[in-house]
Amino acid sequence: MKTDFIKKPLDLPKEEWVHNKLALKGGPAIIPEDLRKTNFPIITKEDILQMQISIQRSPEEVVNEFTEKYRQYVGANYAISTASGTSSLHLALVGVGVQPGDEVIVPAFTFIATAQAVVAAKAIPVFVDIDPVTYCMNPADIEEAITERTKAVMPVHVHGLPATLDRIKSICEKHSLKLVEDASHAHSASIDNQYCGSMGDGAGQSLMADKNFPVGGEGGIAFFKNEEDYQRALDFLKESGIDYRMSWIAAAFGISQLERLPYYDAIRARNAEYLTNALSETKLFKGPFVPQGYVHSYNMYRIKLTPERLGLDDLEDYKVKEAVQELLMEEGVFAREWQNVPIPGHLPFKNKKGFGNNYPFSLSNQESSNRYDINNFPNTLQMLRSTLTICRELRSPIEYERIQSYALAFKKIDSNPEAIRELVAKYTSTKKSYEKDARLG
Question: How far apart are CA 185 and CA 183, in angstroms?
Fold first, then answer.
C-alpha cells in the first residue's frame, strides 16, 4: 500500500551543523532530501467515524451542524457555509449591500481571490498599499482611496496576522462604509480575544484542505454581524440560482477537524515562537511582527531579510533574496515567495476585461489609466524584494526537532555571507520578482 507516512525519524539537531559546508557546495543538508515532506491535514479515526455518522444523515443536516459549530467557535452572529473561500467573500460582499458599480477598497498584497470576489459582486476593486511592518492593509492609505462610489473596505488578515481593525473600523464609521474581513488565513487569529471573522459587518474565509483549519477538499464560510445582511445573502442565493452549497463530505470532515483545531493552533504558535527567537540571533533574518493583544495564526510565516546587518547592503536586495532562497532550498527548507506581483499587476486587473466589454470596470467613472500601476504600491514592492515565506511546513503539527532544524538552516546561511555574494555575482540577468509573470508559489 502506498503511504504518506514518513518511516524514518529526523536526526536530533546539533548546533555544530551550522558550521558544516553548505549543501549547495556539497556539504550535508540540514534536512535530508527524503525527510523534507510534511503531512497536513492529518486524518484520524475520528474523521473516519464522523464520515460514517454523517453518511446516515441528510447533507443539509451535516452542513448545518458544521456551520453552527464553527459559527459558535468564531463568535459570529450569523454564518453560511459555502463551496469555496472565493464564494464566501463574494457572498459576504453581496450580503453587506455591495451593488454593481460600487467600489471596494482592498490591499495590493493578498491572494487574487480577494479582488476577484469584488469583481464577482460586479463591483470594482480599488487597491491600497500595505503597512511595511505587518504586510496588512495600511490604514493611512484608505481615506485617500475613498470616492463617492466606495461601499466597503475589505482588509485581509495576511498570513494570519489580524489587520489593524480598530483604525480601519474608525474610518469605515466616519465614511459610512461597510467593513468586510478576508479571514482566509486567519483561523483562530484574534485581537484582544475576539476572533477574526466576527469583528466586521461581514467576513469570508477559505476552509480548503491546505489551510490551518481544513475541511474535506474545497470549502468556505461567510459570516455576518446583522440579520439584515445575512438575509440579503440568503435571498441572493435563492434569486440568482447560484449553487454555493458546501458539500456534506467537506462539512463532515470539518466537524471532526474542528475538535483538533486548538491543538494545531498551539503547535504552530509554539513552533513560530521558537523560530522567531532563533532568527533574532541572526543578522540576516527577522521573524514576523505581532502587536500586543494580537494572536497570529501563522497560516504562513514571512521572514524579512536585512542584508545591511550582514554587510551585504552593497548588493541588490532582490538578488540577495534569490540567493538566500536557493541556499535554503538546498538545506531542505522550502522558502517561497507565495506571491511575486502585487494583485493589481495580475492580468485580470491589467486587462480589465471582467465579464466582457470591460464590465464591471466600465461602470467606473474614473478614467485614470494608471490606477492599477504596481508602482503605486512601493511598500508592497519592497516587501516582495526582501522577504520569503514558509507555508505548509509550519502549518502541519511538525516534530520539535524539525523546527529546530529549520532554525539551524537559517543560522547556517547567516554564517556564510560570502556564499550569498558568490551567488549574487552569478545573477547577471535576474529580474525583480514583480518584473516576471505573475504566479503563486
Answer: 6
Residue corresponding to grid cell 476572533 = 195
Instruction: Quote the Cα angle for 69-71-73, to 5°.
Output: 70
Q: Say if residues 161 and 184 touch (Cβ distance below 8 Å).
A: no
Q: Quick count: other Cβ atoms within 10 Å of Cβ 163?
A: 33
* Integer Cα distance of 84 and 61 in angstroms: 19
Q: How far is CA 46 from CA 50, 255, 328, 415, in A?
A: 6, 10, 37, 46
| CA–CA distance, 287 with 291 (Å, rounded to integer) | 13
Q: What span, in angstroms and rounded, lies between the C-alpha atoms of 134 and 252?
A: 35
Q: Which three cell numbers stand for residue 219?
A: 470549502
pLDDT of 4-33, one tens digit each?
777 788 999 999 999 999 999 999 999 999
Cα 412 to Cα 17, 99, 279, 394, distances in angstroms? 8, 53, 11, 19
Q: 408-426: b or e for each residue (b if 16 or more CB lie within 10 Å)? A: bbbbbbbbbbebbeebbee
Q: Would you list the DSSP string of 377-389?
A: -HHHHHHHHHEEE
Tell me the C-alpha distance between 366 and 372, whole Å. 12
Residue-wise pLDDT for 73-106, tens only, equals 999 999 999 999 999 999 999 999 999 999 999 9
| Rounded mean pLDDT, 294-303 | 97
Tell how many helices (H) and how many strands (E) occur in the chain.
15, 14
Asked if the peptide bond before residue 9 counts as cis, ω within 30 degrees of 0, the response is: no
Q: What's residue 66's pLDDT? A: 98
What is d(CA 205, CA 213) in angstroms, rounded to the nearest whole number?
10
Give dist(CA 278, CA 400) in Å, integer: 13
